[in-house]
Amino acid sequence: MPTFLQTSIFLGIIGIAAVLAVKNKEKFITTESGIKYKNIVTGKGAKAKLGDTVSMNYTLWLDNLNGKEQIDSSYDRKAPLQFVIGKGLVIAGWDEILQVDMTVGTKREVIIPPKLGYGENGIVNAEGVVFIPGNATLYFVMELVSIDEKP
């Protein structure tokens, strides 16, 4: 027969697992434009805003979050992408979602509709090979690594 301590530890572990399961089942929030997102980790750093130079890590899938059709990942290259928010240097969905309460250290699952991604045309490389098909929904895990705020 288990001791009181063993039973308490077992129930504690089950409770932690239940909390984590609920946390992972949190619903996506949908912006007015149709982007869906939920935080995996909420950072405690500065909040990103228009005009900031940011460094982002990301992974992109075309089939679903953590799917089999991984297209690109800055994690694989070990080099975050750096750009200025709002200058049109990245897809419109990124410019928007970074300004939705994203702080340094935040890691987020994001689903971007085609109109805020690569649209009807998608991306075709110089050899004519389709990299991202037209009207593709984009599935990202994004992490805001740092902000170099505008002066």
UniProtKB/TrEMBL annotation:
<keyword id="KW-0697">Rotamase</keyword>
<dbReference type="Pfam" id="PF00254">
    <property type="entry name" value="FKBP_C"/>
</dbReference>
<dbReference type="InterPro" id="IPR046357">
    <property type="entry name" value="PPIase_dom_sf"/>
</dbReference>
<dbReference type="InterPro" id="IPR001179">
    <property type="entry name" value="PPIase_FKBP_dom"/>
</dbReference>
<feature type="domain" description="PPIase FKBP-type">
    <location>
        <begin position="51"/>
        <end position="148"/>
    </location>
</feature>
<protein>
    <recommendedName>
        <fullName>peptidylprolyl isomerase</fullName>
        <ecNumber>5.2.1.8</ecNumber>
    </recommendedName>
</protein>
<dbReference type="GO" id="GO:0003755">
    <property type="term" value="F:peptidyl-prolyl cis-trans isomerase activity"/>
</dbReference>
<keyword id="KW-0413">Isomerase</keyword>
